[in-house]
């Protein structure tokens, strides 16, 4: 029933969105064995470290501009069919360099995919460049400089992901300054595997308009009030949080408490097939298990469009579609 609702997604990692069927097809093409990270057509992992291992193995199956165009088209076609009108994809030029595709070919392939799907379904999509925290401040600054220099109208934001418990957020502030000075939107992963203090640090040191996850802000009432006051938008990913054991199950997930505290929240799938979810399923969970009304779900979609890293003309056009 939520299939009929318009949807928008701000938080999805492109390489984390590979449908298992596409991974299998790519593995056959390149002669790669999949036993280490796939079983019975699904990805297998058991903790955050082995999740990152499976993620890297799947990412390694995409090796050319065409491969990335295919991946982008496959994901966005599914998203558009589920009612989404807007998507932000987290991309990693760093990773593209590491696997030998090269950042420019990687971005060109993703851009082609975005334009192809927009032409047939009308879905808008933007790329948000992600620096990987566990690669250290120098690599994250490299990613920021890459994004800043690109001047690509489809590349509109900067983010940091990866192992949240590694390094102090202050070490990465310079990368975010580079991105902000270039006019890119700013978001950062915090308050997922690390507690409320990581959200506070992100607000103080990075000054983002959005936070990836941020759900553990519930541990600190003062912080909740601050998030509500400052209008910082949380990119909430319930399926990911439950899959990684941040919360034991959906009834225990704090989405409702965050919303009730006046914090701006949105629904997102993060790395959907790794967490046995999809954007559509996140809306279903919020509706059926957490008891959000269709009006409340519409409000979350509107919040996502209002917080999207797009120009004002595009934002107005998207809002008019709700
Ligand atoms: Zn994420």
UniProtKB/TrEMBL annotation:
Top-level lineage group: Bacteria
UniProt entry tagged with the keyword Transferase: no
Adenosine deaminase domain mapped to chain residues: 7-321
Sequence intervals crossing the membrane: none
Cofactor(s) this protein requires: Zn(2+)
Coiled-coil spans in chain: none
SUPFAM superfamilies xrefs: Metallo-dependent hydrolases (SSF51556)
Residues at the active site: 192
EC number: 3.5.4.2
The record's free-text note on cofactor binding: Binds 1 zinc ion per subunit.
Example of a GO biological process term: nucleotide metabolic process
Keywords: Hydrolase, Metal-binding, Nucleotide metabolism, Zinc
Pfam families assigned to the protein according to its UniProt record, in alphabetical order: A_deaminase
Reactions the enzyme catalyzes: adenine + H2O + H(+) = hypoxanthine + NH4(+)
Keyword Protease applies: no
Residues the record lists as binding substrate: 271
GO MF annotations in UniProt: adenine deaminase activity; zinc ion binding
Site positions per UniProt: Important for catalytic activity: 213
Residues annotated for Zn(2+) binding in this entry: 11, 13, 189, 270
Function comment: Catalyzes the hydrolytic deamination of adenine to hypoxanthine. Plays an important role in the purine salvage pathway and in nitrogen catabolism.
Family to which this protein belongs: Belongs to the metallo-dependent hydrolases superfamily. Adenosine and AMP deaminases family. Adenine deaminase type 2 subfamily.
Matching PANTHER family: ADENINE DEAMINASE
Protein name (Swiss-Prot/TrEMBL): Adenine deaminase
Naturally occurring in which organism (per UniProt): Rhizobium subbaraonis
